[in-house]
Amino acid sequence: MSVRLMVVDDHRLLAEALASALKLRGHRVLAATAPTSGAADLVIARAPEVCLFGTASPAAPGAFDPIQRIGRERPQVAVVVLGPVPSPRGIAAAFAAGAAGYVRHDERIEGVERAMMKARAGEASVAPALLRGAFSELLHPVEKPDDEGQRLLRLLTPREAEVLVRVAEGEGTRLIAAGMRIAPSTARTHVQRVLMKLGVGSRLEAAALAARTGLLDRAVVHTAMGAAREPGYDAAQGPDAP
To answer: Residue 140: which pLDDT band, with cuts at 50, 70 and 90?
Structure first.
């Protein structure tokens, strides 16, 4: 059964890829957009049955404020959160804000579709494995959890970190080359190395892994810090400011 929905995600490439996949499965996608911070106005105006709300940082303060506003002004819209490996705080914050479900970013499309259907029917949707993991973390907290994003970032050169950020923003090889002032063949090589180092087979997988582990946020900061160290950089205006 077709669902009228919207897809919003902090990373445009993920939003558009998921929207395309759901269209192919017969659903009516009203919009696919980023970032989530501006989602409430659009959702309230379009009034879909379901909103898929993708966030890279579910535990961040204010991450789910748009869901609260949607709940106040469009209570008939069921919001399903798409997030990284969740913490108990992230899951709790999502449901406290009014979400009808929580699904991992890397869930198979069938799992996302099931969550949509349950949310539209007024049922809560959380995979049992997510709840088990969350409760296990609450009962047996790890004092110093491994930082997967930091580990993956150490595998990348500064150039490759910038390429990953651009890939996640949906830039193709030519745009990456133009933005970084390198040859398209060099940009293609950088992309291939990023995929190899991250152990993934496609740009979409790389973007999803980076979002899920927090690597993308770290890569953005890493890239900005690298630019700030370049000659001619002005912190207020960017590189080569007059």
So the answer is: low
- Can you spell out the DSSP letters for 182-222? --HHHHHHHHHHHHHHHT-SSHHHHHHHHHHHTHHHHHHHH
Entry pTM: 0.60
Identify the sign of the CA torsion 64, 67, 69, 72: negative
Q: Residues 19, 7: contact at Cβ < 8 Å?
A: yes
Find the length of the chain. 242
**If we measure between CA atoms, which residue out of 141, 143, 160 comes closest to residue 152?**
160
Residue 180 in tokens = 């970084």
Best CA proximity match to 15, nearest among 209, 162, 207, 192: 207
Whether 50 and 119 have beta carbons less than 8 Å apart is answered as yes
The number of CA neighbours under 13 Å toward the Cβ of 105 is 28
